[in-house]
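Final report, Chapter 2: Outcomes

The project's central promise was a pipeline that accepts a single protein chain and returns its three-dimensional structure in a standardized token representation, suitable for archiving and comparison. That pipeline is now operational. To close this chapter, we reproduce one record exactly as it appears in the project archive, with the input sequence first and the structure output second.
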Amino acid sequence: MPPSVKFTKQEIIDAALRVTRAGGIGSLTARSLAAELGASTRPMFTYFDSMDALKHEVHEAAKDLYRAYVKRGLAEPIPFLGVGQSYIRFAKEEPELYKLLFLEKPSNAGGGAMEALALSQDLVRTSLMRIYRMDAEQADCYFRRSS
């Protein structure tokens, strides 16, 4: 009988995110993740076919964190200003994740400035439409000109 799995998929993603936060996506290897988990490299391959598949999940987790920053910004008295401040706060507090989302060249895991800006625009559109009584096209135009 094979040994039972010691880590959940989410625990592996969380550990991979910690490695990425500390040293960037380039530092995320099977060995660095195994060291973070205090285990062999085998557990990660229980859930992921390759490191690229795991890196894709790390990218998605980084986007989720960025979404949380943007949502806090949208709750500010001036939402569009709050989003801008949240963007800067994310860059300051999560420099490696910021690089991953906004500065790295796109890969099969996604990424790049254009994708990150499109994500920001999607998150802000509804707020702009509500506050300034714009339609979606006007809100997108406003966002692009203000960014």
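Archive annotation: The chain has a mean pLDDT of 87.
This record, like all others produced under the grant, will remain available to the consortium after the project formally closes.
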